[in-house]
Amino acid sequence: MSRLLEVVGARTYADAGVSIEAGDDVVERFKSSVESTFRPGVLGGIGGFGGLFALDTKKYEEPVLVASADGVGTKLEVARLLGRYDTVGVDLVAMLVDDLVCVGAEPLFMLDYVAVGSVNPEQLAVLVAGIADGCRQANVALLGGETAEHGGVMKPDDLDVAGFALGVVESREVFSAQRVRAGDVLVGLHSPGLRSNGYSLAREVLVTSDASLLEPAYEGATRTLGDELLVPSVIYAPCVLTLRQELGAAVHAVAHVTGGGIVGNVGRLLPDDLDAEIDMESFPTPEIFFEIQRRGPVSAAEMVRVFNCGLGMVVAVDPSAAEAAVTLARSLGVGASLVGEVRPGTREVVLA
């Protein structure tokens, strides 16, 4: 016989701030969004103890699995202040899959983790719909995840989201600094906004009050500061994979310009004996970056160390394929231009 006793007037999980019913409601609300991301390889549906994915081993001679984990950072605070969670899910996917593609991996699936103070089924359904949107853009399956209600620990309107993604690449096709050569041309893929990095500094400088998010982003702006800061990240992975498919071995290495800005990330695609020279006038820098610099004020050195400044990804390619890479990227709807070159040096990023 069970030693658990029937108690009159007993406290419940809901009394402690966790609603099992609300959690079940959330799953039902985003079930269709999750299933819309399924791709070949997915086995079964959501709701199990683990997501199943069958790797097509016949497609690869020596497959290498590549994993990434990331979050959205304090961009979520802007979403919280505005009560808008429709775009940050796309940012989560971008941060994950665009890291995977930097080593040449095709993203296969991802998992998400959402922590909240109190479950709001409608709000979470919107968030997951955004994640699903990003997954469809990247052709990656949302294989599963976890929603955790931290009643009594997080404030009721607190929310944080993180994710994990897995991809695969043929071992001989891995992008790396060892493939980069002096004379390689740097192709820049443009970013129309901050993506999901540097928001702690951006918020400190720009968000002086909740009301400031409803004001024009800068003088002459056609959208509010809140709208500007919530512009979803471009997902570059499909473009980079197409570049590799069409240009083959001419694509040598890729840098995702996230935390650490242009200087910190472009340096990661260089071997010890080469430098990267980037012409800062060769790609468009959205006005929001200049607004951050003006209102800080923030030095030019700090701007390129923190923000992408309009350069979301940099691809090192053989000079013979540089123009073709730009043309192909543009044909896929991604802004691109020739932004610099690789030359002998000591692994420095030189901005001109």
What does this structure look like?
With 352 residues, the chain is of the alpha+beta class. It contains eleven helices and twelve strands. The strands form three sheets. It has a six-stranded mixed beta sheet. A four-stranded mixed beta sheet has the order 3-6-4-5, with helices on one face. A two-stranded antiparallel ribbon has the order 1-2.
Molecular shape: globular
Q: What distance separates the N and C termini?
A: 78 Å
**Strand-and-helix sequence, N→C?**
HEEEHHEHEEEHHHEHEHHEHEE
Alpha-carbon Rg, integer: 22 Å
- Biggest sheet, open or closed, and with what strands and sense? 6 strands, mixed
Count of DSSP-assigned helices: 11
Please state the oligomeric state of the protein chains shown.
single chain
Overall pLDDT level: 92
- CATH T-level fold name of the largest domain: Phosphoribosyl-aminoimidazole Synthetase, Chain A, domain 2
For the secondary structure, the number of strands is 12
Global structural class? alpha+beta
User: How many domains comprise the coordinates?
Assistant: 2
CATH superfamily of the largest domain: PurM-like C-terminal domain
- % residues in beta strands: 15-25%
Q: Point out poorly predicted stretches.
A: none
Describe the strand arrangement of the main beta sheet, using strand numbers: 8-10-7-11-9-12
Corresponding CATH architecture of the largest domain = Alpha-Beta Complex
What is the CATH class name of the largest domain? Alpha Beta
